[in-house]
Amino acid sequence: MNRISWSLHKFEELTPSDLYELLTLRSAVFVVEQQCVFLDMDNMDQRSWHLLGKINNQLVACTRLLPAGLAYESCSIGRVVTAAAVRRTGVGKLLMEESINYCEKLFGGGPIEIGAQLYLENFYQSFGFVREGEIYLEDGIEHIHMIRKS
Description:
single chain; globular; Aminopeptidase
């Protein structure tokens, strides 16, 4: 696998091409692949940071990093997505490591919260996230609230 180049952007720093690629990847996975009809554009992107992972100038992974008080009481990582072509290659692990590191740099060393799809609980536990609360449905998919203490 070729080397991933990571870049972090405030919403207003995203180029039109980067924004188009980001929304295309999220739609391909969350709407088409997972067959989930929902409005991805939820007015949180504009107040978030966006971590983009590219291989050969092609977007293969991204997350959005949200400051405390936007989605949860603490800062959070959301819209975690990897392209189908790079799954099971370690890109998702690298994406989460980078996302956690950038959350700590941007927002300090406090807790990080996520709303995780239930089937990924073990994956997120490997980064120190712990389930809090019961399973809930979000857009027809089972989710759990998880938190990573500092």
